[in-house]
Design goal:
The structure is a homodimer of 173-residue chains. Chain A is mainly alpha-helical. Helices cover 68% and strands 6% of the residues of chain A. Chain A is built from 8 helices and 2 strands; from the N terminus they run H-H-H-H-H-H-E-E-H-H. In chain A, strands 1-2 form a two-stranded antiparallel sheet. Chain A is globular, with a radius of gyration of 21 Å. The two termini of chain A are 37 Å apart. At the A-B interface, helix 3, helix 4, helix 5, helix 7 and helix 8 of A face helix 3, helix 4, helix 5, helix 7 and helix 8 of B.
Chain lengths: 173, 173
């Protein structure tokens, strides 16, 4: 899929000089005008985020993990023994959505909910051995396919600058 | 709301030098470690996008418009007489979601669906006079509150660089 997509991009790039041919001109005249919308950061962020999520899903397709599920596994791995509320709040996931996501991960034996001995109302979350193994494979796929291609597209310096600006928005806006 | 949020940010900034006091150290020890997650562009994009959408909703609260509804009104204004499929495809909105959104906008008399005279199966979309007036007010609120604050946070040059990188991802990734 990556190959055919790259081929499409290259074909599109190669055809650029020929854009003024009648067929291309007709295609352009039917394209919609985004106008000021393309200057809105929220719109640009959402479009880029959708593209990145689509590519992420393709890259980890053998493991059937969504970006949100991947984030949960990463966080559980780094913070074993934390409770549901802490994980959900850290990721900014609403409680009902988070409970549904945990049901899915637990049914696939990727994580386990254990009743806290300190607070019987609270559930501690842990990765299972299978969860750790799936996460390790996912991290390799994401690094080798997804993040590597992003790095190639933007260049390392731009990628770092982009990451820093996004972190500033998330923290301070 | 903007003022109180800015005050919170300033308070947080002012307290930074005091971070090593016992109370702050305790708060830090309970914070979860994001680890490598913070290096993932998809994660950073999603967090920034959620923050920007929250602020957008606050800024246009008097008009009760979501970012997606705002995008649709902007696009209809710039491209009158286009059909449902063209608008939905341009914005990358799935058809069932788009139909539900149009139902909402039409019930509020912000846009109208008119059966195409060329193709009776297709619906042409138009802004109503009320839709145009609401869009004009929304654009003013977004420019004066939302985009102006983003500009202030990032600086105009960084904001332009961010927008360009997001457009590259949306187009070429």
């Amino acid at each position: 899929m990556t190959v055919s997509k790259a081929a499409t991009i290259n074909a599109a790039k190669a055809s650029r000089p020929a854009r003024k041919e009648p067929a291309d001109a007709a295609a352009e005249s039917t394209a919609l005008q985004l106008g000021e919308l393309s200057e809105h950061l929220g719109y640009a962020l959402k479009r880029a985020q959708l593209k990145i999520f689509e590519d992420f899903l393709r890259c980890v397709a053998p493991l059937q993990l969504t970006p949100a599920q991947f984030s949960v596994l990463m966080l559980l791995d780094k913070n074993p023994g934390r409770n549901q509320t802490e994980i959900a709040n850290t990721l900014g996931i609403l409680r009902p959505n988070f409970v549904a996501m945990l049901d899915g991960l637990e049914s696939r034996d990727l994580c386990a909910r254990i009743r806290s001995t300190n607070d019987r109302r609270s559930h501690i979350l842990m990765l299972t051995d299978k969860g750790r193994a799936v996460l390790a494979r996912a991290k390799k796929l994401v690094a080798a396919k997804h993040e590597a291609r992003l790095n190639e597209l933007l260049g390392p310096a731009n990628r770092a600058a982009l990451l820093a600006m996004l972190a500033t928005i998330a923290k301070e806006f």
